Amino acid sequence: MIQLFINGQSVSVIEGTSVAAALAQAKSYSRLSVCGEKRTPFCGMGVCQECRVNINGLRVLACQTLCQQDMKVETQ
């Protein structure tokens, strides 16, 4: 199992899990729309850009990023 932190909340996932899947497991969202609505990953292949998150200070796509031990994920 890999432990990562989503908005400060500890989440454990199996190795090979995408950050988008970890967000779903944690019942979290990836960002807020301009209207303030919660947005979640949609396409799962990096096209829609709905899964943008900050990981260890870098802006990345959650659906294209695998979880790593002690990773720090911040949503908007």
Q: Would you write up a description of this structure?
A:
Pfam families: Fer2_4. This protein has 76 residues and is mostly beta strands. The chain has one domain: Ubiquitin-like (UB roll), CATH 3.10.20. Helix content is 9%, strand content 33%. It is built from 1 helix and 7 strands. A 5-stranded mixed beta sheet has the order 2-1-7-5-6, covered by helices on one side. The termini are far apart.
Short description:
With 76 residues, this protein is mostly beta strands.
Tell me the total number of β-strands: 7
CATH homologous superfamily heading: 2Fe-2S iron-sulphur cluster binding domain, sarcosine oxidase, alpha subunit, N-terminal domain
CATH architecture: Roll
Could you say which structural class the secondary elements and strand pairing correspond to? mainly beta
Q: Describe the main β-sheet briefly.
A: 5 strands, mixed
Q: Looking at the structure, what is the overall shape?
A: globular
Strand content: 25-35%
- Which regions contain 5 or more consecutive residues with pLDDT less than 50? none
* Spatial strand sequence of the major β-sheet: 2-1-7-5-6
Order of helices and strands: EEHEEEEE
Key traits:
two-stranded antiparallel sheet, 76 residues, 2Fe-2S-bd_N, mainly beta, single chain, five-stranded mixed beta sheet, 7 strands
Secondary structure: elements and pairs:
Layout: E1 2-6, E2 9-13, H1 19-25, E3 31-32, E4 38-39, E5 52-55, E6 58-61, E7 72-74
